[in-house]
UniProtKB/TrEMBL annotation, chain A:
Protein name: Kinase A inhibitor
UniProt GO MF annotations: ATP binding; hydrolase activity; kinase activity
Annotated source species: Pseudooceanicola marinus
Pfam families: CT_C_D
UniProt xrefs under InterPro entries: CT_C_D, Cyclophilin-like_dom_sf, PxpB
UniProt entry keywords in alphabetical sequence: ATP-binding, Hydrolase, Kinase, Nucleotide-binding, Transferase
Superkingdom of this protein's organism: Bacteria
Lineage of the species this protein comes from: Bacteria, Pseudomonadati, Pseudomonadota, Alphaproteobacteria, Rhodobacterales
Residues covered by the Carboxyltransferase domain: 12-213
TrEMBL record, chain B:
Species of origin: Pseudooceanicola marinus
Keywords associated with the record: ATP-binding, Hydrolase, Nucleotide-binding
PANTHER family named in the record: 5-OXOPROLINASE SUBUNIT C
Superkingdom: Bacteria
GO-annotated molecular function: ATP binding; hydrolase activity
Tagged with keyword Hydrolase: yes
Residue stretches making up the Carboxyltransferase domain: 27-302
Name of the protein in question: KipI antagonist
Stored InterPro entries: CT_A_B, Cyclophilin-like_dom_sf, PxpC
Amino acid sequence: MPAAARDPVALPALLPLGLDGVLVRFGTTFTEEGNRAARAFAAEAAALDGVTEVVPAPASVLLRLDPREQPAAQVQSAARALLDSHDWLSLPAAPAARCWHLPVSFAKADAPDLPEVARITGLPEADVVTRILAERPRVLAIGFAPGQPYLGQLPPVFDLPRRAQLQDVPAGALTLAIRQMVLFSNASPTGWMQIGRAAFRPFQPDATDPMPLRTGDEIRFHAIPDGELKALGEDPMGGARLEILS
Amino acid sequence: MTGAALIVSAPGPALTVQDLGRPGRAGQGLSRGGALDPLALWEAAALLGLKGPVASVEMPGMGATFAVTAPMRLALTGAPMQATLDGQPLAWHAAHPVRPGQVLRIGGTTGGTVGYLTPAGGLATPPLMGSRAAHLAAGVGTLLADGTSLPTGDDPMPHRPACALRPEPRFGGGSLRLLPGPQTHLFNRARMESFLAARFTRGPRSNRQAIQLLCEAAQDWHLDAGGMASEPIQVGDVQITGDGTPFVLGPECQTIGGYPRLGSIHPEDLPRLIQADARSPLHFTLLDDAGAAPLPVAPAARLKRLAANVTPLLRDPAHMHDLLAYQLISGVTAGDELDRP
């Protein structure tokens, strides 16, 4: 039985994390509803008295506090009141305020796992790419590495398991697993499968805004011809274009 | 004085510039980073008479040879390391005035895992996102290479005599308080009791991202948590990886993680974990109620407490070549006079 099924805590749950944190959990597994709730709650929780930092995750939100400034119990009460003020798990899908257009290379060298994804999904490689290009995934959470987005949710055909054997991917790798994509900030070992590569870097330490993506942003991928990635490579924005939707 | 610098030669494999890191950016995927043992930076601040920690050289395991281009005081804190100035042994947990032309050699740790060298003016490298700390996992900053010249801030009292500090005890392992957290209930009572009964030592896969804990007992603490959504994690969290090995997250940890977590180490006990070397046994005690746990010490109170432990370093016996000429024992006592009320 997976651990999540054994979880006796009713949802949404409010749980202390360390001395300086309160975790608000909307789901033990990933769901669109839980993610929407986490993103919406995170946006409002930042204004709560005593909250010094908000860390949204795929199905939960961490509120950080300074227990010497404001007792954790007070912040928990404020978070509980906010939690009880809406039915967070029934929020309708909200349209994105911003859309990023990201050039991506699907050339053989930039998409080493495309054949494997084609094999598991039963789709021809070209169809995998066409379907990914037609998607408008949202930034579900930013984390693991600086600026690094979890994107989704993709259709059920892309519900691929993560590989047990980790493989190295480069910065800018567009990877896929469990109906989500991750665009890697830095070179990293991973169990996710690399199906493309962007010149855009989600973490740009020398830029005014070092982590340009925000949770809730919409993403559209645009295929670029083989060899064009190198030409885009010098600028960490990598040819990305931000469209303001509302 | 401007333009002063600290020159690094023949560095050990893991030297970096560290301060207290970049709090407040975990929501954007950047963990706080900063010194493995922040207490050592507070101790340096107390020794140097500073208002708070400044950027220092962090030296895990092995130091380097250092020289200064202007007179300045240098504080040596954290894990004690072999240190000499122009060949003469130098006291650790102390601050020393150093002049241009002198050679400060810092070798290996003699207890603990990570030592710090702090110039009184702080390292004045260009800050990035509000900190000078290298965060190698995030791709910020680099390891210090041979010949690196690190700019330093002004030391207003470069000739102030040496002083020493009684360090907060933390270099031999011991007990770590575990705060229950959002996933503690995933571990049943038998698993938790076996974890609390186990004795651990630091494993070789320890770094700034996480500290590996090894133990001889059978490790059956892992869970099938494959379906669990990744949740926010932070320094001090104890996670159990797929093969049952516990890892305590370090300052350069990822910000979201999927491995199940037993709980979090009380922040006041983290330096003891960080400074426990492979020979120092560690064990955990579970705090029943995180809400009733003692709070971390406030910065001002910490500095005041440490400053009260600073004393002049009048004469280090290690420097005294004619030690045998001194009358060192003038009588025999019970040895506890100073401790008696």
